[in-house]
Amino acid sequence: MTSSSPVSEDSSGTSARRGAEKTSWAWATATFFGAGLMRPAPGTWGSLAAAAIWYFGLRAAHFTGGPAIAATVAGAALVTLIGIPAATRVERESGRTDPGFVVIDEVAGQWLALAVAPLDLRYGVAAFVLFRIFDIVKPWPARQLERLHGGMGIMLDDLAAGAYALIVVLLVRWWG
Q: pTM here?
C-alpha cells in the first residue's frame, strides 16, 4: 500500500507522510522500542533483542520446562495481538508496505522459535539463527502469508518462520 502523499524522512531514516502524526504507542511497539531503527539489518536487531529478553527474563524468573514454554508462548501471543494493529497503523502512517523498521513481527516469530528451547545458550543461538534463516528464505507458506493486508501479513509470515524454527529445535532436542 504505497501512498501518493508526499513523504519525508526523519532523522531515524523512517519516513512519514508529510503532516501525518505518528501514533506513539504504535511506533514504540512496531519498532520494539527502537530496535527496528538500528542499522544495519533491523530485523536481526529485533530478533536479537527478543532473544536476549527471552534468555535473561526466564533466568531472572527461574523458569524452566513447562513454565518457560508457557511464558514464551504467552509472550509471543501477546506481542502478536498488540503487534498486528501497531504494524498496521505504522505501515499506514509511514506510507510504506511492510517497512523494515517494523520489527515487532521478528519479536513474535523469535519467541515462537524459542518456545521449546531449553534455557541454554546453544539452543538459544540455534533458534535465533534458524529463525533468521527461515525469515529471510520464507519457505511456503510464509511468503504467501506476507502478502496479506497490513499488520496481518507483516506478523504472520514471521510466525510461520518461527514455527519452522521451532520444529527444527524440537527435532534437535528429540534426537540430540
A: 0.87
